Amino acid sequence: MTEKHPPLCDYEGSDYQKSFWEQGGRAYEDKAEAIALKRLLPEEGRLLLEIGAGAGRNTPRYTGYERIVLLDYSRTQLRQAQARLGQSRRYLYVAADAYRLPFVDGLFDGATMIRTLHHMQDAPLALRQVRRVLRPAGSFILEYANKLNLKAIFRYLLRRQDWNPFSLAPVEFAALNFDFHPKAVRQWLDQVGFDLQRQLTVSHFRIALLKRLFPADFLAWLDAGAQLTGNWWQLSPSVFTLNHARGESLAAAAGAFFQCPQCTAPLADDPEVLACPQCAAQYAVRDGIYDFREPIA
Ligand SMILES: C[S@@+](CC[C@H](N)C(=O)[O-])C[C@H]1O[C@@H](n2cnc3c(N)ncnc32)[C@H](O)[C@@H]1O
Question: I need a labelling partner for 184 at 20 to 30 A (CA). Which of 90, 148, 206, 284 fits?
């Protein structure tokens, strides 16, 4: 295999959902994200790919879609998502790397990537994969962490931060945690074949004092208004974008679904093991999770 393989941020064993969301005082951010998603999601759709689904915090919000594929590199996160959402035909759980999506081209009519691009050292490579698995005109909701936020700008101007929020290069503020410049993200989206439709700026009031003083619902209500300035300027810590897949790529053939992440040959679905007819790699299906992290043979 000659394809690049950037390092991964591994959430195996992490209690992220509990410690960050449920006990971490982030009710305001969660509500603000729910509002942004509602504004950007299409009213209906067939098959949605949720990349970096984690423990499925956002999955119940994708109400318009008939079926949702939750993809995450961490089996632990997927097991937590299963516990939250249950096992049914509506949800399919896939452990795989976003840099090598195990799906045939043009399969999905929608995709989301929320709070996940910020773990991508090679963001354009991950975005190219999303475009590959989407049908023409498919919709892609991307959230990214914005380095050009007001707090970073003030800190930089007051010389309390050495990295420059105005430069286009990503900043790695902790190992495998990146903030991106909005212009750089827009350029990548365009280069890989997306047309940007709409931008919403989110979490304007992510300030500890404000969160102590005001109820989460009130801050989310204020945020809902401020989000609407997102097409004009992006100075908030989080940005949500709606993009449409551009171009002539073909929709997937009927019945085609998985492909081998090693050699890209189509795989026949099987309830226990998926065997690649081309490179002979085999992938396990365990407890309702299709596991493409590494072949079992
Ligand atoms: C910060 S969590 C966000 C989870 C969820 N989207 C949410 O907003 O609650 C990031 C998720 O991305 C996943 N992730 C990171 N790098 C990945 C990769 N290369 N491929 C697939 N998933 C990845 C992690 O396992 C983790 O569950």
Answer: 206
For the stretch 250-283, pLDDT in tens is: 778 888 999 999 999 999 988 889 999 999 999 9
Q: Which residues form the pocket of ligand 1, taking CB atoms under 6 Å from any ligand atom?
A: 8-9, 11, 16, 52-54, 57-58, 72-74, 77, 97-99, 114-116, 119
Q: How far is the CA of 52 from the centre of ligand 1 (A)?
A: 3
Give burial (CB, 10 Å; 0-12/13-18/19+) of 207: middle
pTM of this structure: 0.97
User: In the 8-state DSSP scheme, what is residue 176?
Assistant: T
Residue 267 lies in a domain: no
CATH code for the domain of 125:
3.40.50.150
Domain of 45?
16-257
Is residue 292 a part of any domain in this protein?
Answer: no
- Measured distance CA(278)–CA(296) in Å, rounded: 16
- Asked whether residue 102 is assigned to any structural domain, the reply reads yes
Alpha helices in 41-162 (DSSP H): 75-85, 123-133, 150-157
